[in-house]
Amino acid sequence: MSGWGVGGLFDGLLDPLSRTFMQHAFVAIVLVGVICGVTGAFVTLRGLAFMGDALAHAIFPGVVIAFVLGANFLVGALIAAVIVSLLIGAIGQSGRLTNDTAIGVLFAGCFALGVALISRQQTYTRDLSSFLFGTILGVSRSDLALTAAVGATVLLVMGLFRRELTMAAFDRVFAQASGRSLFAYDQLFLLLLSLSIVISIQTVGNILVLAMLVTPAATARLLTDRLGVMVALSALIGGVSGVVGLYVSYYQGIASGASVVLTATALFAVAYLFAPRTGVVTTAVARRLHHPFPERDRFPPAHDDGIDPRALPGAVAAPGAIGDDDPTAADSAAPRRRATPA
To answer: Compositional bias (Basic and acidic residues) spans (predicted)?
Structure first.
């Protein structure tokens, strides 16, 4: 029976791989998981999670224009991503507006432009639903080649400028004092983030792309304090979430993008509860083991609670500190006084 169970397990694992569209889907989701995991580590550390979501919507006009022209929508999204990221940096560099304000303006304006363009098409609902929810099961060889090329470029650039990107994320004052151009590296990071978003759209869609950027990185952040380990764990969690999510989607009939994101969210929940050093459950158990009877612990109150420090054990009274209005202190000091002759 056990042998049959093991054989059935292997058959279940290998059956999706016998289909070409699933092979393409697995390769695509692993690429996206690794790329978004690496980029997402810096997104999480810099607190730019919702900027990633805004960028995903701001590239909508490029997708619509590519659809109208009959071109690959990934190419249109790439061009729009480059333009939007450059505009964000230019507006934010003006000094009167921050990058958050710039992305807010461009997000709303670009998305409205995309809606205006698409409303003039008759079949936009059916044809562009893949942009919103992803079509990872429809990935072609050309899509895989484009995803791999863009992903390799993103990882290569991040590897070459890892010191500068790390410095800009952790200590911007020191980076500026050392002569590095923060505007240039911020612009570079926005461009890399935009490219990562574009190649994720076809797998999980525009709506769920934020999860692939943030959730694996947030899970890795709960497990380590070292940047290098965090980046590696984030990439690993992103890839594993994609593979497991595709298997769940294949056998349970769930939408592939939603299944991948739910798997990543489940891993985050496990880390949040059971991380060795920061998990809610593990830290509670550790405290319980260290103090098995917390109700027996008694700590002296702080001095700022109205307690006279002279009343604490071992306190030494200063000369002349005993007053006549303190009968307890007077009684304790009475034996030390000499009797005067009558």
So the answer is: 294-308
